[in-house]
Each structure stands twice: as C-alpha cells, then as structure tokens.
Amino acid sequence: MALTGVQIFKLLPKTNCKKCGFPTCLAFAMALAQAKVDLAKCPDVSEEAKKTLGEASAPPIRTFNLGTGEKAVKMGGETVLFRHDKKFFNPCALAVNIKDNSSDDELVKIATGVVSSEMDRVGQKLRVDAISVEYASGNVSQYEKAVKLVAEKAPDAALILNCKDAAAAESAVKAVAARKPLLYGAAAENAEAMAAIAKTHGVPLCACAQGLDALSALTEKLQGLGINDLVLDSGAKTAKEIIEHNTQIRRSALKKGFKPLGFPILNCVIRDGSAFEAAVATVSIAKYASIVVLSSIEKWKDLALFTLRQNIYTDPQVPMQVEQKIYKIGEPSAASPLMITTNFSLTYFIVSGEVENSKVPSRLAVMDSEGLSVLTAWAAGKFTAAKIAQFIKDSGIESEITHKELIIPGQVAILSGALEDKLEGWKIVVGPREANAIPTFLKTRAS
Amino acid sequence: MAYVVPKESYNGKVLNVDFGKGDKALVIGGENALPFLSFEGELPNRPVIACEIQDTPPTDWPETVRNVYKDVSGDPVTWAKYCQNDLKAKAIALRLVSTHPDRDNRSAEDAAKTIKDVLSAINVPLIILGSNHIEKDASVLVAAAEAASGYNCIIGKAQEGNYKTIVAAALAHNHKLIAMSELDINLAKQLNILITQMGFDKEKLITDPMCSALGYGLEYTYSVMERIRLAGLMQNDATMQPPILGDVGMYVWKVKETVASEADVAEWGPLEERGTAWEALTATAMLIAGTNLLIMRHPKAISIVEKTIAELT
Question: Does any domain span residue A77?
Fold first, then answer.
C-alpha cells in the first residue's frame, strides 16, 4: 500500500545532503509519495529502505503482457473497483479453447478464425486475442504438434497452454517459447515442476486452486520459487463464483494491499450454448477478468463481446467521438435533406439511427465539438453559428447539393438567425429537439 | 500472509417493492449488498424479467423479434396470454404505443379498455407503460391507473415534465410507479425527491435511470446504475434506494446490430443470433450494475438471461 510522505521520510538518511536535487529529505519524501521522483536519486538510501519503499511503490496488481509483439495484451495494472472512480485501463483478453486431439482441420479453423476475427468499431481494432490449447490427448508429442500448428497458423495470437502435465507442458513451452505462452497451469500438486518450466523459459504462469485461501497459499509458494508473472484461476465455475471471487480478489489487492492476490484474473466460462456462454462472459468482462476463455468464436458473438468490452473499458472522463465529416445515410440525392449535429458518439449513434429509421435518404453533417453533446457544446462555445458556418463552407457540400437548406437541432434553435447571417444564401430550418422525433419530421417534410 | 475475505459493510438497503396480486405477485429489491455478492449480505429477491407486449401490432420491431409474435400480436389480450401461458413469463409489460400522437393517437379511454381486457385475461403482474410522449402519457396513464385499480400494477413512466398527474393517479389507485430521468444520477435523485414530496411513498417507487443498448451508451447506464446502488447502500441515501428498472428491449431492438441483415453486414454473422445476444448481453450487464427489474422482448434472450440469473444466485 502507498506510504505517506512522513512514513517515507522516516526511512531516508535525513542528512539533507541535497544530492537528490531537493533541498531537504522531507521535500524528497513528499515528492516520492506523489510518485514524482525515483528513489534511485538518493545515493545514500539503505538497502532496507529500498526494499520497503520498492514494495510499497509496486502497483497493487502486477502488470505484464499476454503474448508478444504488437498484438500482445497488457494485463493487470488496474487501480479501481468501479469504472466511474477513474477508469479500467487494460481491456481483458478473449481466448478460445481447443483440445489438442481435435483434427488438424479443426485446429487450423480455430487459428484462422482468431486471425480473421479482427473488426473495427468506433475507430478501435478489436479481436479475439488468444488461443488456449488444451492437453486432452494424454500424448506429449501430439500436444506439441497441436500447439505448433495453432501457433504457426495464428502468428500474432497469444497462446495459452492449458496443460497440467509437466512433461507435455515442457515440450510445448519449448516449442513456442519465443511467443511467451501463458502456462496454465500450476496447482498445489505440480507447483515445483511448473514453476521450473516457467522460470527456465521465462513465461508467465497461471496459478490454479479451489478458492482464495488455497490460491493465496499457492501464489506465495510460486513467488517463493521465483515466479512473479502470475495469473489467477480461483476455480470459479458458476457465474456467482465468478463475480464473488473476482470481486474479492480485486478488493484484496486494491483495498488491503494483499500481495498474494495482486495479479490478473483468468476465468473459464465454457458453457453449452454459445449465447449463454456469452452472457456468462459478460459477468467476467464487467467484473475484473483479464482473460476470458470461451469454447467457441462466432462472428455475432465476437461482435457482441468486443462491444461490451469496449463499453466497460471506455474512459468515463473522455467522451467517445466520431470523425468530423458529412455522413451519407441511405443513398441521398443532390436534393436530399442536410442535417447537422455534434460528434459525441452517442449523439451521432442516436441521431443517425433515427435518420435511418425515417427511411428518408439524408446527409448528416457531424461537427467536431470535442465529443460534447449538442446543448453542452453550444454552452461551451464549440457549436456556434460562426463555427458551424465555417464547417459547412469548408466541407465543400455546396457543390454537392442542389439546395441550400440546413436542418439544425431544435435544442439550438436560437442559432438560426445568426447562422443565416453567416451562411449567405442558406435557409436554416429548426429540426426537432429530441432525436426520436426525427423520423416524423423527415417523413412529413418528404411528403 | 493469511487470506481474509474483504467484506464491505453497507449501511443501507434496497427497498422491497411488491407488485401484482395473489400467488403470482412478485417482490423485487430488498438486498443490502451489491449485486450478487451473497457473501456479505442478504439478497432475498432474484431479479425479475417482464415480457414486453404492445397495444398494437409491433410494426416498428425488427423482423427477428416481430416474427416470434406474428400469430398473437394482432391483439394485446392474445399476446399477453401467449406470454403468460406459452412463454411462462413471470410478468408482462404492456406498452401503450398506439396512444402516441405520431402513431395512431388512440385515446386514453381506448387505452383504459385495453388495460381492462388484458388484466382480466392474465394473472401474472402487469407493468403499464405509456408511449413516452410527455403530455399524452399524463392523460393516458391517469386513465390506465384507474382502469387497473385494485391490481397493484407498476405504471410509468413519470418524468420531470409530467410526474405530478401520474403520481397522483398512482397514489389514488394504489399502484407502484416508475420514475424515469435521463442518464444522470442527480436527475434521478431529484425526481425521486419531487415525487416523494407529493406524499408518494418511496417504498412504491422504481427508478429508471434510462437504459441504453450495448454499443450505444451502455457504459453510461451501467455506471449511473452502479453509482445509484452505491449511494443507496454505502451512504444510506434514502432517495437512492428504490429498485432499478432496465427497460432493455426498446433500446436494443432498434440499433443497427439487431436490425441489419447478414447480406448487408456479412462480417457480423447471422442476424437472429446477433439480435438475441445483443439483448441478452445488454440485460446481463444491467443486472451486474444493479437492475432489479428487466423489460425484454425476445423469448430466446429472456431464457438466456433467466439461466444466467439462476447461475448468479
């Protein structure tokens, strides 16, 4: 847990030597408490102080990557229990599990499915991040072969080696060590052997136990064996266990500074019924999992889970924005209506959805208002007559349409006079105050 | 280091609200811990899913969900009976969309008759919803409250612009009331205060902080709900203790992901699975954030969420 400036001060040499660049040890301690400076600036600090301060300054949930390269997934590093308190930083990885005794065709299908899962949504590239290969065959060479095949066909995916047999794990880890697979995992009975493999090859290790008592004891043991990049599987099976265990783990790490549980969480949510599995995955994604293991990936399911993950991990303080431009809805002709709104993603989604519902082909000019909604943007001086006029002129829309009529949101009806002054030759029409009135509004005008 | 279960102590409790009558009556709320955390509190009542119907054929619903009801949705009574008897719905939410001036502009008297007909055909609890037209709802819901007198229904939604008449009607005919505000915890709190200041018992209120669909503002609804729950439980804020409503179906079944055909967006996969998953996942997220009562449309989505609730409790 974080120390106060005074607590840190007590551990410093108290010589006021100024070598750290601060006038006094107390000033240095205060800066340390705010994480503004590195302890290494003090040349005379004792080993004991280093150890205490180092532990205190370590993040409460350890941060490291699943996989390697550009598509590696950063895990851990979370600082709050509720997203509104600050934000959730590192979106969880979605993984799909496949047994090593599946046919080569099936293995290749899963691997290529993961590769082609990438989609774009509101400017973010989203994908299934990892493949978990389960040791089900009981045959060491078959396991290694399956792991290699999947690794080769999905060259950017993170790998999870779902295997508790040390011999099979050793050969598979060796085969794909450069990909830094997550070894899943270590239990009480194989802890030493698995820790040795993880240590030799420098790969992260998942600790698997039934319940949080046993899990804490296991991670302490594994850390004692020199493994620091640990992932937690508490053995949570039901959705109830998932939400309860994950909540207790996150709270222990953040509120109690309980180090044995200060690691990312893995939940296996495999269920009969893909949609049901997605619903249970929703619980994991919302409540603190860093890796969610699924039994299947389908396009519809990927889309829904990617979107949910994106929603939960959106920064509550930074509004989602869409690109400033004039969007075509339906297939507008040169005579179709032109409407304008702001670039707050929700505003855009709702307005464009209602325009679409109207079935009246239209153009929707979306103006950069730094992600503010219409009324807020107007109040903040970002959606003013002068700025709107400038945007319309610069957009070149005048040469694309045969009319000069701009529909503005009813909330900013007050702008219509000033806009007609600034946009010479244009007629300003005041549209509805609420988006849900747009279909009627457009249909009435069209008829 | 020995592991100690990190329990929160909560000062407040979500209020119990019962609705319906007889052996089919339901109770929601009553928990004194965050959603599904049974290790640190009492969670006496599981969340309820009400099946949504309308007083007019659902021409505005996308085909995926419209088709499910195509043989019964011509008449609200037949539709309600189908939900109760065939789908085993625990509650029914009847939305009086035809009263909207932009739809059929049917009268309050018409709505009252529909309510009476539906109530006499079912025995599960009924939720009566207006068309979300501020002025029209005020007259429609007053007539509906009277028509449903004695049935202990939930009526709504009372909003800032029309709450006075609707609150008075709910009070006069002894119904529970949905108070809806737009995605802002302070507005939700303020509306609850205004309503209770009229002498309406806070133990008869349900808060609707406005739902949003997955991908279309779900994160706002999610966080507003979490904050309402935390205020009610941790700070014992009495104005933030009514159960929470998630009116999921109407927000989900109009977004592109539940409407666009596979021919148009091949990369999104089959429409039916996509649409039902969209509704089921939106509803599940709402439950995790604190929703006690869900209003949903697709039977497959409802059954997935029921299964999830069973696993969560």
Answer: yes
pLDDT band at A318 (very low <50, low <70, confident <90, very high): confident
Q: Do B3 and A311 touch (CB under 8 A)?
A: no
Q: What is the pLDDT of residues A177-193, one digit of tens each?
A: 999 999 999 999 999 99
CB contact A318 to B (< 8 Å): no
Selected for mutation to probe chain A from B133, B219, B255 (highest A CB count within 10 Å) is: B219
Q: How close does chain A come to B192, measured CA to CA in Å?
A: 22
Q: Which amino acid is at B22?
A: G
Same domain as A75, residue A40: no
Quote the CA–CA distance of B173 and B149 in Å, as a whole number.
5
Inside any domain, residue B7 = no
Residue A230 lies in a domain: yes
Tell me, yes or no, whether A182 and A203 share the same domain: yes
Domain of residue A124 covers 64-312
pTM of the model: 0.90
Asked if B107 and B75 count as a contact pair (C-beta separation under 8 A), the reply is no
Strands (E), A252-370: 266-268, 291-294, 325-329, 338-342, 362-367
Q: Is there a domain that residue A320 lies in?
A: no
Q: What is the pLDDT of residues A22-34, one digit of tens each?
A: 999 999 888 887 7
**Minimal Cα distance from A438: which residue of B?**
B102
Of A261, A285, A312, the residue at which a domain comes to its end is A312
Select from A83, A247, A353 the Cβ nearest to the Cβ of B37: A247
C-alpha A403/C-alpha A386 separation (Å) is 21
Distance from CA of A144 to the nearest CA of B (A): 33
Chain A (129-188) residues lying within 8 Å, Cβ to Cβ, of chain B: none
